[in-house]
């Protein structure tokens, strides 16, 4: 207890010698040589030293009267409650981080023991496929091991070499021709491991290399047969491997253009089909949604989404999430995809010609804003509603009491209690979003011409953004292994 009080007392007032040194520095800098000499002489005198000591004791008791320089230096030493909490959290994160690294090392130890055991079995089995499988496992294990020993920091500073890329593509086609599913999975996952391992600033170039090498043989054959056959194979591990790699490729606009070569939407349609077959929240479903969300930046894919009933599917998914736990990634990316779908001139025109369906969509979205849904999904739904708040949908807006319900939502949301600073920021963002999108001056206007002008050159803006932003994010989930 004494130590704590002592430290606390010391932090109230900065060290007098330190303050004197600051003053000396200022006097030297300003060339106040005479003042500096007098100042040094006075400090050296015993009488003044005693006065300073007595004054400091008074200051400790009456902090409000202390000179401003004391207060300024004092404030530098005081940490806010938030900073103290952040330091505590940082220590906890570091502790957990070390525990995860230790667990990773233990897993590798077990994996190596299992590989050694399989090697001993290989000698008796004399199976060539088993030998190749073991070698592939070794390569992948070695790459993951590099990630662990580098404590999670990307180790790769170079792209995959031309030779390695060619070898992967050759092995992939050979395993496909031999109908060796496990071999195809290994090659696809190996390509993805390389993508995850490479330094973030090089990921965009890696995607371009995958496209340049025509990894799915699309441009060379002017067909999608190979990748479509892979997607048609009913094997969960293979679907996980192929969708995760397609997700990597779709991370850039050029990748989306490669996957929709010559305007062919067969891959998009297959991904939608697989998406709907998956259990809600599953890993493969997450990769499918990642692909569809990234591809939705290109307006030409949107008709496929609408025709394959993605609007209804996403609305149903959000509805299910109200009573059933669904992975946050699925809800976030699905609702973002919905916003991109509704945002396009094609969808708005489609909804104009389907007034009953437009009414159903608007009504359901307005119901969602009253439910307990995560903030990112709420924002996407509000964005969707803003796209529908046009004169072309005036009838539906009146039937759904659009303006009244938005006003009621804003009134309700503005008085909700927030538990922490992050929640307060989210609340402010939502209210700012509403103020911007549903301003009375804008709700009754049909800015179709303005909208058209704003939508021009969308892909050019995306290309420009990609050129400026070197880093891409490739999805990776903790529960992929299971």
From TrEMBL:
Q: What InterPro entries has UniProt attached to this entry?
A: ARMC9, LisH
The biological process GO terms on file are: cilium assembly
**GO CC terms on record?**
centriole; ciliary basal body; ciliary tip
Task: List, alphabetically, the PANTHER family matched.
Answer: LISH DOMAIN-CONTAINING PROTEIN ARMC9
Q: Give the protein name, as stated in the record.
A: LisH domain-containing protein ARMC9
What species is given as this protein's source? Paramecium primaurelia
Q: What is the lineage of its organism?
A: Eukaryota, Sar, Alveolata, Ciliophora, Intramacronucleata
């Amino acid at each position: 207890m004494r130590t704590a009080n002592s430290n606390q007392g010391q932090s109230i007032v900065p060290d007098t010698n330190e303050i004197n040194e600051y003053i000396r520095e200022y006097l030297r800098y300003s060339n106040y040589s005479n003042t500096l000499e007098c100042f040094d002489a006075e400090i050296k005198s015993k009488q003044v030293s005693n006065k300073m000591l007595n004054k400091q004791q008074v200051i400790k008791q009456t902090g409000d009267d202390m000179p401003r320089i004391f207060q300024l230096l004092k404030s530098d030493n005081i940490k806010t409650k938030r900073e103290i909490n952040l330091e505590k959290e940082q220590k906890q994160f570091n502790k957990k981080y070390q525990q995860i690294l230790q667990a990773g090392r233990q897993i590798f130890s077990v994996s190596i023991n299992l590989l050694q055991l399989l090697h001993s079995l290989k000698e008796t089995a004399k199976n060539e496929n088993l030998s190749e499988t073991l070698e592939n496992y070794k390569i992948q294990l070695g790459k993951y091991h590099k990630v662990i020993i580098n404590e999670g920091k990307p180790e790769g500073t170079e792209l995959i070499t031309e030779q390695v890329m060619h070898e992967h593509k050759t092995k992939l086609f050979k395993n496909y021709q031999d109908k060796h599913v496990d071999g195809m999975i290994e090659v696809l996952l190996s390509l993805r491991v390389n993508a995850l391992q490479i330094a973030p600033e090089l990921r965009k170039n890696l995607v371009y290399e995958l496209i340049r090498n025509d990894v799915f043989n699309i441009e060379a054959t002017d067909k999608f047969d190979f990748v479509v056959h892979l997607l048609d194979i009913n094997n969960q591990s293979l679907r996980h491997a192929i969708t995760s790699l397609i997700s990597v490729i779709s991370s850039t606009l050029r990748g989306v253009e490669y996957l929709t070569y010559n305007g062919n939407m067969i891959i998009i349609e297959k991904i939608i089909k697989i998406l709907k077959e998956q259990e809600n929240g599953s890993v493969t479903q997450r990769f499918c949604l990642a692909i569809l969300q990234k591809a939705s930046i290109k307006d030409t894919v949107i008709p496929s989404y609408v025709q394959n009933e993605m609007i209804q599917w996403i609305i149903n998914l959000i509805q299910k999430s109200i009573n059933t736990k669904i992975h946050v990634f699925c809800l976030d990316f699905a609702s973002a995809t919905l916003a991109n779908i509704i945002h396009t001139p094609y969808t708005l025109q489609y909804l104009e010609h389907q007034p009953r369906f437009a009414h159903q969509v608007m009504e359901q979205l307005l119901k969602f804003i009253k439910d307990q849904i995560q903030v990112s999904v709420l924002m996407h739904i509000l964005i969707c509603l803003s796209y529908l708040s046009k004169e072309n949908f005036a009838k539906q807006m009146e039937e759904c009491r659009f303006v009244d319900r938005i006003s009621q939502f804003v009134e309700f949301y503005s008085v909700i209690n927030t538990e922490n600073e992050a929640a307060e920021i989210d609340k402010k963002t939502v209210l700012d979003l509403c103020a911007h999108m549903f301003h009375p001056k804008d709700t009754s206007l049909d800015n179709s011409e303005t909208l058209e002008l704003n939508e021009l050159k969308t892909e050019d803006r995306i290309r420009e953004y990609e050129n400026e932003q070197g880093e891409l994010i490739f999805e990776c989930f903790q529960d992929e292994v299971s």
